[in-house]
Design a protein that fits this description.
Redox-sensing transcriptional repressor Rex; 7-stranded mixed sheet; 10 strands; DNA-binding; alpha/beta; binds 1,4-dihydronicotinamide adenine dinucleotide
Length: 217
């Protein structure tokens, strides 16, 4: 796509929401939608939507609106959801199990091919059909299966050591839930990182509530 390289990070961050929303419209049998209606339903201004979608060629037509399916497929392609990247998950504790069980990886461009933990009680179990292996087996596994991404659900004290091992084993992308902030600007090393902190979202809610309640008083 000619315009794709210039899409800003801010727009990329909004694309999953458009994608989710357009998917719901498709499920309801909606085939086209105006930017005004899309704006009302998503709570984003129509001009913001036009600006966002123009970044990769628009697809809106005057008087017609957006073809929901075309836009859905285009966003999927920009996000890379039309191919699958192999991923492994490290840390099969409470969070790791929840992520493995509930995240629909295949629909989001990933395939979970291995899970690793150091706890002997977990090794040998399967989660969502994927075997939990010993952490010692990370390197031999990577030599055979070449996973590109890793999901980290381990304590922060071990994140640096494990991520260094994974980088040496060829992993390029980290979805990092541990509260150790893997440096974000790793692109020059050929590494990309998404640090996830649910607590950040909770603190944002705290701020919003504080503001709301002080306005009411
Ligand atoms: P947990 O204790 O239930 O699970 C951690 C798992 O990591 C255990 O199974 C343990 O055996 C394994 N582990 C420890 N060292 C390891 C190593 N060197 N190699 C492989 N596996 C290893 O903890 P939980 O609740 O699942 O949380 C996991 C991490 O996620 C913690 O660091 C926690 O603070 C963080 N967390 C982050 C959230 C977020 O929003 N980012 C939300 C909740 C938890």
């Amino acid at each position: 796509m000619a315009h794709e390289k210039n899409i800003s990070k801010a727009v990329i961050k909004r694309l999953p929401r458009y994608y989710r929303f357009l998917g719901e419209l498709l499920n309801q049998g909606v085939t086209r939608i105006s930017s005004r209606l899309l704006s009302e339903k998503m709570g984003i201004t129509a001009s913001q939507i036009r600006q966002d979608l123009n970044c990769f060629g628009g697809f809106g037509q005057q008087g017609y609106g957006y073809n929901v399916n075309v836009l859905y497929e285009e966003i999927a392609s920009i996000l890379g959801l039309d191919r699958q990247v192999d991923a492994i998950l490290i840390g099969a504790g409470n969070l790791g199990r929840a992520v493995a069980n509930h995240m629909e990886f295949e629909q989001r461009g990933f395939r979970l091919i291995g899970i690793f933990d150091e706890n002997p009680a977990l090794i040998g179990q399967t989660i969502k059909g994927v075997l939990v292996r010993s952490t010692d087996k990370i390197e031999p596994f990577c030599r055979v299966y070449h996973p590109t991404a890793a999901i980290l659900c381990i304590p922060k004290t071990v994140t640096k050591e494990i991520s260094d091992r994974l980088i040496d084993a060829g992993v390029k992308g980290f979805w990092n839930f541990s509260h150790y902030d893997l440096a974000l600007n790793q692109k020059e090393r050929g590494i990309v990182v998404e640090n996830v902190h649910m607590s950040d979202s909770l603190m944002t809610l705290s701020y919003e509530l504080k503001t709301l309640l002080s306005e009411e008083n």
